[in-house]
Amino acid sequence: MTPDITPRSWAMVLALGFVWGATFLFMEIALRGITPVWLAAGRIGFAMALTVVVWLMLGGRLWLTEARAWGALIVVGLLSTAVPFVLLSWGLQYVTSGFAGVSMAAVALMVLPLAHVFVPGERMTLRRLIGFLIGFAGVAVLIGPEALAQSGEALEPLGRLACIAAAGCYAVTSVTMRRMPPVDSFGLAAVPLVIGTAFVIPLAWLQEGAPVLPDGQTLLVVAVLGLLPTAGANLLRVLVIRSAGPVFMSLTNYQVPLWSVFLGVLLLGEPLHPSLLVALVLILVGVFLSQWGALRRLFGR
Length: 301
Known about the structure:
Blueprint: H1 7-30, H2 36-57, H3 70-91, H4 97-104, H5 107-118, H6 126-143, H7 156-178, H8 185-208, H9 216-244, H10 246-249, H11 252-268, H12 274-290, H13 292-299
Helix pairs in contact: 1-4, 1-9, 1-11, 2-3, 2-8, 2-9, 3-7, 3-8, 4-7, 4-11, 5-7, 6-12, 11-12
């Protein structure tokens, strides 16, 4: 189906970029009043409740053919919600929200070598390879040489690695979803959240003990995280992909790190290190080069 790009499509993709870029700021605020794994559990729980209701109202379909891939669906459920949410919540205790946002821009780069191996027709061309190498240099700058230090003085290096690992989870999820048999889009938004909830709540209980009711502000922020960037944005993502196509949806890759850095500096007073800007530029250039062919076909029609 030919992508139908309208002003409404642009409004939705801009809204997605802003909401996902602001996610890390809200997470950093929430961590002042709640432990990291329970933050992930609360966020996924709120999102699951809303998304499942919408999915059931639309018929509750999942598999569209006789083919089934429950193993892949479980992988998607764990690596698209539970595991990266826990990694990001833990990592944000030690890194800035801007850093976490820039690390998410690396997802598109990590997909390239995985798709080259596992997705037919997604070969690593010279242009993609150059884009990947430039972006990889940006990831190296982002982590910094201190990530290899063994002093044990601070957990910031591990926090950085946790954010990069979360990006890796999203990259694996992206490739896994593309290899799945036909599945209802809203079912694919809802069921992984159910799987993630079933995993992360017991993990939070084992790791951090019974939940403690947070203060009102923290509870509100957790609810916002669950309803807007997790459930609402996930459903909006489905609408964008269905109407304007996945390539147009990839334009959010350029917005998320910009918004996360800008909002972190403006609202939280986070420092704007030169290395963060260098990493941001390198990663975005890498993503642009790697997606240039698809973007040219998209806007050159």
